[in-house]
């Protein structure tokens, strides 16, 4: 679980993964969903070596299932690769890489990922088909063109790959690291499977996303 970002698009001084969401830091909600799923055998969180926030919270609820790795890198992909190198799992182990900034993940979505990928030769990711018309911005933030949206999906996380393949893909990607794990696997010539996610599995990136995440989690508590 990459959690070593600075949250610059969120603004403010607190990295977004530690912002209060309902009654806990945002990342606690994300970790809890994975911790409570019977198919998840352990949690590895990658934080920045300079992270001064993690130790201010109580993580005892996760027991020895949670490993914190202070090996975050300059990019998300670097953080993920550093975490993979630190854990030394078996090559055939399934690894799910999930943004700490996506606290609205659900057990149902994890079930869907496992059910559709557990026998897959490559692996895959949650994603949602693009539903809006896409505009390419030009000079002065005016429309330069309207882009075809047929067959376009927005990638989410978790992204699920065998440990050996994922580590090799990220190690061999080279400069300009990928923005998601699937892109690195694609670069090796594989075609990850797109598993239908939900728009509620949003990534908290901008301030309004935090409000939306809070409303979603609050509504789930009332179900
Ligand atoms: N060097 C980095 C950058 C990002 N992340 C993590 O990757 C996830 C998705 O990245 P993003 O939403 O871009 O987070 P930030 O990089 O923190 O946000 P920003 O780009 O606005 O600074 C987040 O959980 C973030 O903590 C990471 O582990 N290491
Ligand atoms: C991995 C990801 O969430 C898939 O959409 C996205 O690429 C992360 O991008 P970010 O800029 O690192 O948040």
UniProtKB/TrEMBL annotation:
For this chain, the family text in UniProt reads: Belongs to the IspD/TarI cytidylyltransferase family. IspD subfamily.
Instruction: Report the gene name.
Output: ispD
HAMAP family for this protein: IspD (MF_00108)
Q: Does the keyword Nucleotidyltransferase apply?
A: yes
What GO molecular function terms would the record report?
2-C-methyl-D-erythritol 4-phosphate cytidylyltransferase activity
Q: Name one GO biological process term.
A: isopentenyl diphosphate biosynthetic process, methylerythritol 4-phosphate pathway
The name this protein goes by in its record: 2-C-methyl-D-erythritol 4-phosphate cytidylyltransferase
Q: In which pathway does it act?
A: Isoprenoid biosynthesis; isopentenyl diphosphate biosynthesis via DXP pathway; isopentenyl diphosphate from 1-deoxy-D-xylulose 5-phosphate: step 2/6
């Amino acid at each position: 679980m990459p959690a070593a970002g600075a949250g610059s698009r969120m603004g403010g001084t607190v990295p977004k993964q530690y912002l209060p969401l309902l009654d806990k830091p945002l990342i606690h909600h994300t970790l809890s969903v994975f911790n409570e799923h019977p198919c998840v055998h352990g949690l590895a969180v990658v934080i920045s070596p300079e992270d001064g926030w993690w130790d201010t919270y109580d993580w005892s609820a996760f027991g020895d299932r949670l490993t914190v790795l202070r090996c975050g890198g300059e990019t998300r992909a670097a953080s993920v690769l550093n975490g993979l190198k630190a854990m030394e799992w078996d090559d055939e182990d399934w690894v799910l890489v999930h943004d700490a900034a996506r606290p609205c993940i659900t057990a149902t979505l994890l079930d869907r990922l496992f059910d559709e990928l557990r026998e897959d030769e490559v692996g895959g990711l949650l994603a949602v088909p693009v539903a809006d018309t896409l505009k390419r911005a030009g000079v002065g933030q005016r429309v330069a063109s309207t882009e075809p949206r047929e067959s376009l999906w927005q990638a989410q996380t978790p992204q699920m790959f065998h440990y050996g393949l994922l580590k090799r893909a990220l190690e061999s990607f080279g400069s300009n690291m990928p923005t998601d794990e699937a892109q690195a696997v694609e670069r090796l010539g594989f075609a990850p499977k797109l598993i239908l996610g939900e728009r509620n599995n949003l990534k908290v990136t901008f301030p309004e996303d935090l409000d939306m995440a809070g409303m979603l989690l609050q509504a789930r508590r009332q179900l």
